[in-house]
Amino acid sequence: MRFKDYLKDKGVEIILSLVLTLLITWLMIIFRLNTAATIIIVVLIVLAETAKVTYGYLRKRRFYDSLTLNVRRLDKAYLVLETLEKPEFLEGRIICDILYEIDKSMMENVAVYVRNSKEYAEYIETWIHEVKLPVSAISLKLHNMLGDRDLDPITRDNYKKIQTELNRITDYVDQVLYYSRSENAEKDYHIQEVTIGNVIHETVMEFRETLLDNNIDLRVEVDSTLKVNTDPKWLKFIIGQIFANSIKYRREDVDSYIKVESVPGDPVKLVIEDNGIGICKEDLKKVFDKSFTGKNGKDRAASTGMGLYIVKELCGKLGSEVSIDSAQGEWTRVTIEIGRDGFYDV
Length: 346
What we know:
Blueprint (H helix, E strand, L loop, with lengths): L2 H7 L1 H20 L4 H39 L16 H57 L6 H30 L9 E4 H18 L3 E5 L5 E4 L1 H17 L8 E7 L4 E7 L6 H4 L9 H6 L7 H11 L3 E7 L3 E8 L8
Parallel strand pairs: 2-4
Antiparallel strand pairs: 1-3, 4-5, 5-7, 6-7
Helix pairs in contact: 2-3, 4-5, 5-10, 6-7, 7-10
């Protein structure tokens, strides 16, 4: 708080004091009071008013400067009241009381919001699990029907199309599930020593039929003994999302492939490459942004823009890093650095 601003705020009071001083001086002159006594009284009045203004400024400056500075420094400005000492002057105490009531009201509203959000998240997760049951049942029935050797080609082709759409539903349902869980990741994941080869194998088994139907060659160059510390379920989902993108954005004019390669080191790297349509340069920096679909998502296929965003979020929760590089019309390469060393050390 600047002294100049304080004087402006006290302008009316200062003017009234000056008028009063002049009036007292005028009265002392009229009543022929001793000149020396008049001067002394006037000087004392001026000194007293000056001292009063200065004292008021110094007393309030500390509180207001501290309030302003702490609000600017704190990441959570609403906690500023915890950093202040109770001021001696009335205005400061009133401000502190008001801030306390505001904080109390805000915390009550936040508690209601958190409770409602938690209930909603629990409902969504329950709903997802309920939905997955009939979806799995339908998928199993389709699988059994496709296993019928007497099935005519047209019906078989229709069943395969239904299976493809069902796989898309499953993928979107899983996205919602993991997105809801990513908000409270620490309650869901379980870090353990995992063999990367096993996770890749499980992911490939889930995508086996889709890869065959789309004539995509899978090339796995992973050290079967390589181990990392991570959550296998989450890592499987992350790899699955990358597989799904590679399949969705494949090229029709080449023999499509997906190549999975492990690179030992600290951290261990998992590289997934495809020869699909690639990503244009201007979209490359935004592919991990929430709801970003980009040119490919608009031109090639319906996209929510959530897949890679969730991948980025889950990798962050697991202490991993994910990056992407691409040449439009040629290839896309996703690199996952799994479980940076020391991330889980406390």
